[in-house]
DNA sequence: GATCCACGGGAATACACGGATG
DNA sequence: CATCCGTGTATTCCCGTGGATC
């Protein structure tokens, strides 16, 4: 836990003991600074990155692993630290004045969930490498590429770019990624991260290394849950037995396990309890669909799509009976300033990429093509809380 | 004035069904 | 009986436009 979180936690204590001390520590979309029990994975990744400590670039690589196995957690934590290394040695931005340690390459982490266009990709890379903020408007994609070329061609060490969530629906696939990197100079090394097995993607034709992350073992997952609970919840709020139960159910997915305690904690909190009960855990497990979609993906959607989902999770079953009924119900909310056509298109688009799922309704009331309804692929309580917190 | 991209709106296409047709 | 057609609804696809920002 960092210092900010500690302070926040103390400040929130004023109203007496509270079950949820800090939602951020519990959030399944937040990665903590030092993921526990992932030593071996860190070591393998550091083995691959070893050349950077001599001021050289590693070859391209691909990291794969199942949903919730901690790929993002490992890479974001490691890159956060490596960035400090390159700031210390002033590699890209200025010429190094230090003789002691060799200049280190720059490090950039790009999350393709939030980077939905060519423009956005180059923008993120450039913006991370230079001090002054890069404008998001009034500048063309071509200009961004030119600036990147100028910057990198003048750099001795180059840059390592981690590209997370490759190959998810609506995000860049392998081919698109290769194209993006074709627009950059050659002193760039990339580290792609995705769920697809290495032998199922053409990315590995461009890589020398591929690393596979295994899903969490049961005991490791229990430890993760207990750690998070100790940071985000009141003392003793989650007992070992409950953590084991959630870990068993989650079957190796840290995302689903964290989503479940998040939901259980929110439920207990609303009931003014000071610890989780068995029924909180049961309810949390029941409302978390499996397989689920990553809440990170849901929260990376454009604002208005999230708004549509936010209204969707509060609808009663009658309003969810058909896509048309759902469209009408959502469209009539005062907070929603979208045309019915757009709301409906959003629902279909989100079904297309697995945020929600379309279910054919069985009621065959005669005329026309039978309607379908949408069902959530994520725990509604978790989304509701996370959405409201970010507003 | 330049640029990007989210929206709107509608056209095109798919599907289900029943009745007509060969 | 198999196939086609018309109607009504659901779903997908496409592209111009305008808001926001620099």
Please characterize this protein's 3D structure.
By secondary structure, the chain is an alpha/beta fold. The chain has three domains: 3-30 and 216-287, Helicase, Ruva Protein, domain 3 (Orthogonal Bundle), CATH 1.10.8.60; 39-212, Rossmann fold, CATH 3.40.50.300; 301-390, Arc Repressor Mutant, subunit A (Orthogonal Bundle), CATH 1.10.10. It is 45% helix and 10% strand. It is built from 16 helices and seven strands. It has a five-stranded parallel β-sheet, with helices on both faces. Strands 6-7 form a two-stranded antiparallel ribbon. Helix 7 (174-182) links the parallel strand 3 (159-166) and strand 4. The longest helix has 18 residues, at 71-88. Mean pLDDT is 89; it is low at 91-99. The structure holds a DNA duplex (22 and 22 nucleotides).
Quick summary of this structure?
The chain is of the alpha/beta class and about 400 residues long. The chain has 16 helices and seven strands. The strands form two sheets. A five-stranded parallel beta sheet has the order 2-3-4-1-5, with helices on both faces.
């Amino acid at each position: 836990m960092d210092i900010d979180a500690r302070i926040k936690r103390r400040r929130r204590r004023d109203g007496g003991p509270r079950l949820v001390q800090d939602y951020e520590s519990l959030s399944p979309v937040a990665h903590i600074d030092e993921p526990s029990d992932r030593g071996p994975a860190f070591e393998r990744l550091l083995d691959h990155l070893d050349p950077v400590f001599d001021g050289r670039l590693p070859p391209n690589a691909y990291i794969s692993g199942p949903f919730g196995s901690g790929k993002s957690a490992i890479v974001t934590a490691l890159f956060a630290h490596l960035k400090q290394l390159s700031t210390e040695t002033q590699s890209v931005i200025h010429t190094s004045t230090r003789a002691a340690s060799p200049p280190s390459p720059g490090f950039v982490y790009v999350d393709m969930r939030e980077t939905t266009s060519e423009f956005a990709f180059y923008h993120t890379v450039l913006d991370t490498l230079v001090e002054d903020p890069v404008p998001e408007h009034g500048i063309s994609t071509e200009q961004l590429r030119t600036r990147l070329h100028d910057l990198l061609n003048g750099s001795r060490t180059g840059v390592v770019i981690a590209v997370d969530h490759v190959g998810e629906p609506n995000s860049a696939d392998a081919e698109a990624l290769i194209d993006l990197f074709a627009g950059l100079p050659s002193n760039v090394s990339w580290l792609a991260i995705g769920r697809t097995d290495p032998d199922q993607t053409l990315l590995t034709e461009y890589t020398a290394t591929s690393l596979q992350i295994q899903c969490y073992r049961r005991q490791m997952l229990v430890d993760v849950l207990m750690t998070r609970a100790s940071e985000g919840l009141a003392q003793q709020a989650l007992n070992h037995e409950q953590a084991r139960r959630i870990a068993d159910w989650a079957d190796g997915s840290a995302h689903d396990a964290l989503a479940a305690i998040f939901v259980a904690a929110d439920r207990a909190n609303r009931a003014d309890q000071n610890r989780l009960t068995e029924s909180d855990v049961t309810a949390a497990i029941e409302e978390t669909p499996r397989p689920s979609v990553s809440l990170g993906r849901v929260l990376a959607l454009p604002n208005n799509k999230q708004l549509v989902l936010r209204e969707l999770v509060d609808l009663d079953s009658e309003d969810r009976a058909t896509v048309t009924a759902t469209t009408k119900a959502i469209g009539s909310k005062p907070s929603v300033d979208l045309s019915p056509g757009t709301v409906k298109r959003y629902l279909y688009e989100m079904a297309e990429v697995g945020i929600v799922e379309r279910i054919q309704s069985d009621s065959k009331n005669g005329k026309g093509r039978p309607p379908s309804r949408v069902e959530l692929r994520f725990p509604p309580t978790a989304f509701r809380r996370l959405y409201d917190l970010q507003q």
